[in-house]
Structure to design on (102 residues):
């Protein structure tokens, strides 16, 4: 079974959860600490404190949405198209927003 190291509040983790669900791939979601400097456990097993991280059945780690999506696309039929649809749900927040009345 796949293990996803992630956080519920993280939009990239959310996109990976949605893609895995859309593809019908079973996984276990493991919550990580909210601050990267508190993620000693994740760093010890995956070599990173950044999320999301996916560990496959063989123990290989895929770090970040691009690596995770590439892995999922390579192991599923028609997966790339479905992953792109799920990934499109990530919306970037503009660096600066103008407030009404400013």
């Amino acid at each position: 079974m796949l293990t996803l190291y992630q956080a519920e509040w993280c939009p990239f983790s959310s996109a990976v959860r949605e893609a895995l669900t859309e593809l019908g791939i079973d996984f276990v979601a493991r919550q990580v600490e909210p601050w990267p400097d508190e993620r000693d456990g994740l760093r010890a097993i995956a070599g990173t404190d950044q999320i999301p991280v996916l560990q496959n059945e063989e123990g290989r780690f895929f770090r970040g949405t691009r690596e995770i999506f590439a892995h999922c696309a390579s192991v599923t039929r028609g997966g790339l198209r479905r992953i792109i649809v799920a990934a499109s749900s990530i919306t970037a927040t503009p660096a600066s927003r103008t407030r009404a009345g400013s």
User: Anything to note?
Assistant: The CA atoms of residues 70 and 80 lie 8 Å apart. DSSP finds four helices and four strands in the chain.
